[in-house]
């Protein structure tokens, strides 16, 4: 399994100091910046778009950016995030008419495609897409808002996807998003996740480095 990545979700950051906040979590040991994009259509909230991603990229952040697109339709905005500096572009199967076409669109624009699964979204889509993905994201909350509680059934989905990734022999990141905290990250890692999105658990803590360090210690004990 790949080395664990901690991916702070900037949805929980102080937006008035966003550049400083991103610098701070990277300095504290984060591996990936999780960039939540919501359109008040696919999900009941409105957040940020490619201009903010571009501004962070121009700032020279060292970590890769995972643009998690909770928007519908999604194809129109994929090229914008590619130009804005995203490394991974992750989307939901319900947000496109043609999942395979969206995956190819992401690759054509030089980014790594990811597919996200909501708590009640079946994993059957992986039957036809896993060989083309670089990341699978399991949502452990219903998307739209930060600070929600972890939905335990996500652990079973992680275990299932981990088995499929191992059987494929491919290097595919398995990401979890929603309610990830120091006190549950060990169980999440044991279920198969290698990429851990955490928003309020990190940005709501007084010491980002201490929280990320505690998360890594819990993962290592798994």
Describe the model:
This protein is of the alpha/beta class and 222 residues long. The chain contains 9 helices and 8 strands. The protein has one domain: TIM Barrel, CATH 3.20.20. It has helices at residues 18-27, 50-59, 78-83, 99-108, 126-129, 154-168, 185-191, 200-203, 208-220; strands spanning 5-8, 32-38, 64-70, 88-91, 112-117, 135-139, 173-177, 195-198. The protein has an 8-stranded parallel sheet with strand order 1-8-7-6-5-4-3-2. Strand 2, helix 2 and strand 3 form a beta-alpha-beta unit. The chain is globular, with a radius of gyration of 16 Å.
Question: Descriptors for this entry?
Answer:
222 residues; TIM Barrel; 9 helices
Short structural description:
With 222 residues, this protein is of the alpha/beta class.
| CATH architecture verdict | Alpha-Beta Barrel
Distance, first to last CA? 13 Å
Oligomer: single chain
* Low-pLDDT sequence parts: none
Explain the layout of strands and helices.
Elements (H helix, E strand, L loop, with lengths): L4 E4 L9 H10 L4 E7 L11 H10 L4 E7 L7 H6 L4 E4 L7 H10 L3 E6 L8 H4 L5 E5 L14 H15 L4 E5 L7 H7 L3 E4 L1 H4 L4 H13 L2
